[in-house]
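Protein of interest.
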Amino acid sequence: MNQPLTPSYRPLYQQIKDALLSRIVAGEWPPGTFIPSESALAKEYGVSVGTLRKALAALASEHVVIRHQGKGTVVATHDSDRSLFQFFHLVHLDGTRSLPISRVLARDCRAASRDEAEALGIEEGEAVVHIRRVRDLDEAPALLEDLVVAAERFPALEQEPATLPNTLYQLYQQRFGQSVAKAEERLFAVTASPTEEEVLKVAPGTPLLEIRRIARDLQGQALEYRVSRCETQRHCYLNEL
């Protein structure tokens, strides 16, 4: 039986993409599982294989699925390597990458500030879980980050083991069923605060790079708000377009 599509003026492949995404969000195909073949899905929706393939390519470009030549298409998981280097853009000045090692400095449940509430799309004062971490590169502190998530979507996150994984997005997906599909970042130049001077081991008045990130789920809703302060004497932000 063909899956019905809502009448729309949007290109057919985009309608198919949205329909497939809805089924992924609903949990019909959990992360790490293969979805039906292109020919089976094309028949199910009553479209050509070419149209179906274009829809899958659009999902792959957004990191929702991963296409394996000769094997099929799998719903993406946040494995450690993929998550780290997809979302972590701080590198050495010569462009080389190192594996960031995280140290949790604080974790608590508190009321959302105005900026946090606006970023997460919740009411000011609603409960959020706050985590402060320092990220080391080659055993030297490279950035200090504060992140918050809505406590309602991440129950008992503050009670997780003291040692959290480097890739929190993997934890979000596997432990709480919340998948980060994309993130938007804004960059600012700031001056190190006394706390950042101590943690990052920089001199007073040292310029830092501030990265404000909102991570979003498959439906585009904000999952996490993160503010990172990065040491800039030995590191830089690299984004390959």
Notes: The chain has a mean pLDDT of 88.
